[in-house]
Automatic annotation (TrEMBL):
SUPFAM superfamilies: all-alpha NTP pyrophosphatases (SSF101386). This is Pyrophosphatase. Residues 29-93 form the NTP pyrophosphohydrolase MazG-like domain. It comes from Bradyrhizobium nitroreducens. Gene3D superfamilies: MazG-like (1.10.287.1080). It comes from the Bacteria. InterPro entries: MazG-like_dom, MazG-related_GP37. Coiled coil: none annotated.
Amino acid sequence: MTIDEYAAWAATIAKVDEHPTNERLSYLGLGLAGEAGEVAEHIKKLLRDDWLDKAGLVEELGDVVYYWACLCAATGQQPSALLDASAAKIRRRISEAASR
């Protein structure tokens, strides 16, 4: 399954349509923030306990991807295009930093 196929599938599960309501967008954004917080919690516990629950972290990363993909679909964006744009932005930043 490609990331674009995953986003289309996730959008059906999250009941995202072409014109999502502010409430639906808020729900998805808060879901993303909540799951990112759970990822941060795993990292915090790594610092505190010097042990990482990799399986738990990976599960939370999957939840982050789900909400991110749903938000992509809700805003009419292809996830693959966003990944390409992100990579280009990072390459630009690296290039600019190297030229300083």
